[in-house]
Amino acid sequence: MAVEGPNAGVANRRERAVLVGVDLAVRSPINRAGAQAARKARVCPEADSASLQQSTEEFAEPSLVSSGLGGSVSGSLGPGLDAEESLAEFRELVESAGGEVAAELMQRRARPDPATLIGSGKVEEIAGVAASVEADLVLFDHDLSPTQLRNLERALPCRVLDRTQLILDIFARHARTREGQLQVELAQLEYMLPRLTGRGKAMSQLGGGIGTRGPGETQLETDRRRIQRRIDQLKLDLNAVRKVRRQQRQRREAVPVPTVALVGYTNAGKSTLFNALTGAGVLQSSRMFATLDPKLRALELPSRRKVLLSDTVGFIRNLPHTLVTSFRATLEEVVQAEVLIHVRDSSSSYGEEQKMQVERVLDELDALAKPRVEAMNKIDLLSEEECAGLGERVGQGGVVAVSARKGQGLDELLAAIDQALHSDPIIEAELDVPQQEGGVLAALEAGTIIHSREYDGDRVRLRVSGPASLMGRLRGFHVRSAPHG
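Above: the chain's sequence. Below: its structure in token form.
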């Protein structure tokens, strides 16, 4: 985060932030216990429903349940993810943005306050905390309406940002290519446009009384028109980017090389796995959203088929819709891929919730039905008991346990990709090739698996399995061929 205002002259100073978590569901102990039991059941499948029933009955509070206030956590947190876990994830976002967490507060309410989201009493408390720790900004782990943002900026002694603004700031920091910068700017402007009246006096619309009409309204409309023109220009530029990408994809499709895309929650280890599989040496970082710009590298599978492996931007809970829209050009690699590798953090305590969020974005992209391989990454961080529990799932439904950092399980992952890939099927064939056909023999060595080889005078008899695209070019040397397996 760039330091603004009076602190702009302080070099290399990390901005101090007060984090505010918001739980918009007053949950009774029945729901807390139920959530804990459900999470335990996911980790230990042998836990039966009786334990869940017992835990909920033990803490039942009829008054809360009957009033409807004992419901599940708000949809803003996602299924099964409580406010504390959400705030822990938010803390990682702040650190990825270069901020320093000076204090954390939590507000639990049955419903949001229309004016400030959290209520006037909590606003006063936050103002006191922000002043005492000399905070540069207050960050809300929730989206703020334009009215709420304006009211909070008036009441608090420092800048106010919500969750979406923080994610947009991280994207802006990590965008390196021209395309990525265009996409981030478009998302920022589309988010800013309805909030101009809340961005300080320079852009505020003046009141409606005597002496309050005049240049303020004109300035606001001028700002809106300027931003709208810039948005229109960015969309034109991104359409040009999409056109170039489409042309590049058409050239790739002329030579049939299928694409396999890495998808997953942010910081699940996609870039580390990408490097482990391809040796590409792209940036790998523990910070969220370290990868924004898609990267493609060639990869050879055990069947000797060639694929293009794509590293894509990570997803996150409540990924701003403006980002999904703006990054559609980048996410087209996911849409066009034949197989998706869903990289999951097996050490995460809320991995199932992360999986649901990824699948929600894939559904938005109409890519949920594509063949998928689940790569349960970071197994080197698991205990022996957790590894044993994960081992029961490995091999079922395309689940593979890997450690990209340690290089464990990569052969099994490549085999799983091979099995999920249906284009350019593997053909097993017997060929009779003259020894003087050096180019044909070299192609067989490079592109097929040779099971047997016999020499008969100046001819070579081979039994091989390889991709149909290559075997078709060598049809003149076939003695017998059949689909592999």
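The two ends are 55 Å apart (CA to CA).
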